Amino acid sequence: MRPTRTLAAAVVVALAWTATACSETKRKDDDNNPTQSAGPRKKGGEVTIANTAGQTWTCNFNPFNPAVYNTSIGFVYEPLVFVNALKDAAETPMLAKSYQWNADKTQIDFTIREGVKWNDGKPFTAKDVAFTFNLMKEHPPIDLYALWTTAGLQSVTASGDKVTLKFKEAAQPYFYAFANQQPIVPEHVFGAGEAQSKPETWVDKKPVGTGPFEVDPCSPNNIQYTANAEYWQQGKPYIQKVQYPAYLDNAPANLDLASGKAQWGSQFIPGIEQFYLGKSKDNHTWSPPVLNVGIYPNLDPSKKTSSNKKVRQAISYAIDREQVAKIGVGGQVPVANQSGVVIPTFDKYYDAAAVQKAGFDKPDPDRAKELLSELGYSPSKPLKLTILSITGYTDWDASLKVIKQNLKAVGIDLTVQTLAQQTFVGRLYTGDYDFAYYNQQTSGPSPYYELRQMLHSANTAPLGENAPSNFERYKNPQVDALLNEYAAADEGRQAEIVKEVSQFMLDDVPVIPVVCAVDWYQYNTEDIAGWPTEENPYAQPAAYNFPDNGQVLANIYSKSAQ
Amino acid sequence: MRFILRRLGFFVLTLWAALTLNFFIPRFMPGDPVDALIVRTRGRVTRESLEGMLTSFGFKPDTNLLVQYLDYLGHMFTGDWGRSIGQTLGEPVTSLIGGALPWTLGLVGITTVLAFLLGAFIGTVAGWRRGGTLDAILPPIFVVTSALPYFWVGLLLILVFSEWTGGLLPSNFNYDTSIVPGFSPGFVGSVLTHAILPAATLLITTIGGWILTMRNNMITTLAEDYVRMARAKGLNPRRIMYAYAARNAVLPNLAGFAMSLGFVISGAILIEYVFNYPGVGYLLYNSVQNVDYPLMQALFMLFTVAVLVALLIVDIATVWLDPRARAKG
């Protein structure tokens, strides 16, 4: 009953890059934004979110506290610029109406939007922006994206309606973090008392932000958000109330979605055809793929089997990915491919010919058998392998059962060992495993982010130490060089770099992608319209994706109110 | 008196041993609060920042374990239980427990008392009319139900009374999320309807034990000379049943009852889990999942103290009720 889960698939990243081609970029208010062309709507209506919280609400809305920030960012707190990871990093100006980089991208000037008010009536100014960043400098724990350390931020100053951020070196890769992820907080609240002296532990009961909604009221079982009547986007939000009940488990959340009691869902629904879609013609789902789920072999030379390329190649050839997606995850996710580029989300970066040339375009059990027989194994004398997975991840269990069968046919006897999540991640991070089934946790607006996390040697660590994201311990100077080059390259070259890196995925098989990880998203159109859809992917659609949720909240509307 | 002093000394010693184990065992568990937080923030936030944040919330893994231990002992007694470092990062542990405890006491506490009273009553009647209809039907049924696992009964009840009836009885949570808590009839009604299924589960699975022991005690007691004497005197059978037989038969069960009251506070973890009931048991489950040391410590401490206090009361009550215990002391 319990063991279903929210497949962790998220936006975001510590490292980011916006797809801007020229070195001097100026963005304007009237930037092309499909969501704003929809025309004004009448206000009214209510939406209920069913996103499993696993706890009752603490009614703390501190946007710097990672345990609660997704109930305040997007709703109440807003970023400078919204970057849409699903649409080639398309930008929507938010609190900054435009920005300008200097020639070598070490300095960025934001022009702050005038006429914006905090929901307590005080005006929003450039000083608030500078204050937010400087507060993070004084209190490293709230610098969640390591802007003052890794990104090399050196100073943030405000003058008039301009805010200037200066960096030690070219910082465009971090734009996604500081402009899109980082919410801006009011100086008149965070500049005094405990909020200033201990912003990381301060309890923000009544959040003062610029966003479309205000908290009113919050109880342990439910947060009710009401529309901010003074919101700076004229006429928005259309929806007047948002209910966010604290679901402790997926099952009740999914039941409420199926009955229509909740309209915005964000977790995996097993057997969705019958359980949800079949219940009403107004129930819809669209789960855009953002990351790969797959087998992480341990490449450390001390691991004789998993560091053997032939074994990894054999596994990748043997797996019938279509079958895994269909049986394991009920056909709810697309298949992945050995190049590591998630399609269709990142089609532009995908090199179909290279995948075909390497023979990974379809399962090839014969080739797998051949490779294994070179090593002296066969179905009658199988190679014994153990793979780690997480207890309660039922879709992974089912996927691994299919994989086990696929491998059995070519001469690999796979044993699946499920561990409690904490034990699992502990062993994965420190490299105490041979094979593990896992996925990267953070995605960005191009495959570069995932590939960098997965393959760059800066993201790994020796066995016994915590690796940030390169768990398989892949080290290749050529790949490092390519990934390092990406930040300074132009758009065309960036696509080439991704293709070149994915060639290493095909050649070295450092990780074996099997299926895609998606943003789980279900929506009901009986009364609410304006949802992000496959045709109009104006934001990442899950309720836990911030600040994307702010875009969705400002654009959905009630049909009965029109 | 010496007996009670000895018991008190034993109480203190046990408490210390339990507190010590409470401190060390969670730290030997696999997993690390930082890793757990990284997983829950979907890797969005840097490890350094999370470590810094946990440090501000009082998590200092690098200090000497002995110093941590002494700090911990002091804090347990002063009630300064720190802040959660797990799923509810930053929330004071006292307010978390304060929010969950009333629900557990209400649900599990009332149900435990109810199960005992009902069980004792049914057992009395069944023992009194040994071989009667009631005795032929109820005890065998409850032998079966008391052997059923909690969670299975819970799931069955959810299926029958919630899913099949189209949500007639709520199957999760402590009250309807759309109601703002307060002393309104709607809220109270909602709390009660939400308690029906979990309470029924608990009742069904625990009542059998009380019935059986009570019935058997009754039968033994009914064979005693003073019961025969009462009958010979021609007393009202009702009076014999309650004042002579039941009153004596219930004594051995009282100790068990006091014990089970001690266990009320630890909640029926599985019940709270199946019904998503946000009580102390659910809190404990979450704290273990997220390697939330401060919350785990405080909860374990409460559980230990509750059981130990219950035991102490049983000991003292025994001394008071049973002259033989006094004589030995």
Automatic annotation (TrEMBL), chain A:
Residues 25-46 are annotated as: Disordered. InterPro entries: Peptide/Ni-bd, SBP_5, SBP_5_dom. It holds the Pfam family SBP_bac_5. Residues 92-460 form the Solute-binding protein family domain. Keywords: Signal. CDD domains: PBP2_TmCBP_oligosaccharides_like. It comes from the Bacteria. Gene3D superfamilies: Dipeptide-binding Protein, Domain 1 (3.90.76.10), Dipeptide-binding Protein, Domain 3 (3.10.105.10), Periplasmic binding protein-like II (3.40.190.10). Residues 1-21 form the signal peptide. This is ABC transporter substrate-binding protein. It comes from Streptomyces polyasparticus. The lineage of its organism: Bacteria, Bacillati, Actinomycetota, Actinomycetes, Kitasatosporales.
TrEMBL record, chain B:
SUPFAM superfamilies: MetI-like. It is found in: Cell membrane. Keywords: Cell membrane, Membrane, Transmembrane, Transmembrane helix, Transport. InterPro entries: MetI-like (IPR000515), MetI-like_sf (IPR035906). It is a multi-pass membrane protein. The chain crosses the membrane at residues 7-25, 103-128, 140-161, 191-212, 249-275, 295-321. Residues 101-314 form the ABC transmembrane type-1 domain. Belongs to the binding-protein-dependent transport system permease family. This is ABC transporter permease.
